[in-house]
Design a protein that fits this description.
This protein is mainly alpha-helical. The chain has 14 helices and 8 strands. α9 crosses α11. The longest helix has about 140 residues. About 0% of the residues have low confidence.
Length: about 500
């Protein structure tokens, strides 16, 4: 068994040795073949490289030759272009030389002509001086005097033409402005209907019988004295049957007195303590009426956000009159007119209504505070934080300030319309006659006025002038001056029309 193993082992070793030598011989054969193949490839590569090198050298030589040809061609073209430019420069130089020669000749001609002109000018100056001297000798005037006369004549002519132009422009502007203003104001008046107002400073209280007069007077007049002391109103008891009269300039006090007296008459118990009680109740009732009247006014106009104190002051205007016109109704009417006109003109309606409603707010306390109602109204508006536009409208509604906003102008116009409409106000006969007399006096104070007549209740004044002292242009200046003086010296509602009449009369006698 061991021998078999040994045999097998020997055979295996022999096989391994044979295999090793066979593989070695095969490998050496492959290596030799590969070396010969590599040598062959290297030889072929060297041949290819040599061929490509020769081709590259040939291409480079061709490229160099081509570049040399291109450069030579460009050089030839540049030389030809330079030659052409040189020829043009030579031509331009020749042209410039010819022009310089021509300009020199022209300068010589101009110098010669200037000398001739100077000589001619000197001759003309001498001739002009001789003519001026001759004209001065003939006319007897120096040149300065003649110039002044000529300028004076031209100035008069220009003034005449300017007056005509101004008159034409003013007429056109007035026609257009009046037409548009009439449309706006007439529309506003049509849409705002107001009552005719006639207030007085007295109130008549009816009595159930004349026996009540004695009870009102009281023992030794104690009741009437207590009543007048508490109310500040005069109680007039005369022969008027079954009536007594309350008289006083303070409308609120008068209203308190009226309510208190009516309550006393209904109650029948009239003595100082009862009078004091009824006056106190009447005051509370009037205060409630004042607040309600102010709130109703703001509601009617449609203006909101007014300070409560201003609303109370508005309510006080219910008991205030101006030339017989109730101031609260006047303020509401002005607010409506302002709103309507503002809507037509396309501006803020609420601001216009607010300014119109508050424009006379100063009249609510003008009997308690010193100063004109305009200044008082401005102070109140500032105190209760109204806007500058509203304050300015209040300040300018009587012309104390020049209106700077459209709202201020609207308030002025609406105030005049409300005050000037028929039936709105009344004035005493004495004041009416005094205003007409003052109007005629203002017109007659101007030189050249012959007669003046105030007509149509003072809404128009017609003035006759002396034709020998006032010409047509002077009439235009005169009517303007009279208008300005009326505006500055006279207080009046609405507007006054000033008409100047100049008559030219020619008289001749046939003999």
């Amino acid at each position: 068994m061991d021998s078999i193993i040994l045999i097998v082992t020997g055979v295996a070793l022999a096989a391994f040795a044979v295999g090793y030598f066979v593989r070695k011989s095969l490998a050496e054969a492959k290596i030799a073949s590969a070396e010969s193949e590599a040598k062959k490839i290297l030889d072929e590569a060297e041949k290819d490289a040599e061929a490509k090198k020769r081709e590259a050298i040939l291409e480079a030589k061709e490229e160099v030759l081509k570049l040399r040809n291109d450069i030579e061609r460009e050089n030839r073209e540049r030389r030809s272009e330079l030659q052409r430019l040189e020829r043009r420069l030579v031509q331009k130089e020749e042209t410039l030389d010819r022009k310089v020669d021509s300009i020199e000749k022209k300068e010589e001609n101009l110098s010669r002509k200037e000398a001739e002109i100077e000589a001619t000018r000197a001759q003309l100056t001498a001739v002009y001086n001789r003519q001026v001297a001759e004209l001065e000798r003939i006319s007897g005037l120096t040149s300065e005097e003649a110039k002044q006369i000529l300028l004076s004549d031209i100035e008069k002519e220009i003034q005449h033409e300017a007056a005509l132009i101004i008159k034409e422009i003013e007429n056109k502007a007035k026609e257009e402005g009046d037409k548009r203003a009439r449309e706006i104001i007439s529309l506003a008046i049509q849409r705002c209907a107001a009552d005719h107002v006639a207030e007085a400073t007295v109130a008549v209280i009816p009595l159930p019988s004349d026996e009540m007069k004695g009870r009102i007077i009281g023992r030794e007049g104690r009741n009437i004295r207590a009543f007048e002391t508490l109310t500040g109103i005069d109680l007039i008891i005369d022969d008027t049957p079954e009536a007594v009269i309350l008289s006083g300039f303070d409308p609120i006090r008068r209203e308190v007195a009226r309510i208190a007296l009516e309550k006393l008459i209904i109650d029948g118990r009239i003595h100082p303590a009862r009078i004091e009680e009824m006056v106190e109740k009447a005051q509370k009732e009037v205060n409630t009426q004042i607040r309600e009247a102010g709130e109703q006014a703001t509601f009617d106009v449609g203006v909101h956000g007014i300070h409560p104190e201003l609303i109370i002051l508005l309510g006080r205007l219910k008991f205030r009159t101006s030339y017989g016109q109730n101031v609260l109704k006047h303020s509401i009417e002005v607010a409506h007119l302002c709103g309507l006109m503002a809507a037509e003109m396309g501006i803020d309606v609420q601001i216009a209504k607010r300014a119109g409603l508050l424009h006379d707010i100063g009249k609510a306390v003008d009997h308690e505070v010193e100063g004109p109602h305009v200044a008082i109204g401005v102070d109140l508006a500032k105190k209760y934080r109204e806007t500058p536009e509203i304050i300015h409208a209040i300040a300018a509604h009587h012309g104390d300030e020049e209106p700077q906003t459209i709202v201020a102008v609207l308030v002025q116009a609406a105030d005049a319309v409300s005050a000037a409409r028929p039936g709105a106000r009344r004035e005493t006969l004495e004041a009416y006659i005094k205003r007409l007399t003052k109007l005629e006096e203002i017109a007659s104070s101007f030189e050249g006025v012959d007669k003046s007549f105030a007509i149509q209740a003072g809404r128009e004044i017609r003035i006759m002038v002396k034709p020998d002292k006032v010409d047509d242009l002077g009439a235009i200046r005169l009517v303007r001056n009279i208008t300005k003086k009326i505006e500055s010296e006279l207080d009046y509602p609405g507007q006054i029309k000033v008409v100047i009449i100049r008559e030219t009369r020619v008289v001749e006698y046939a003999k």
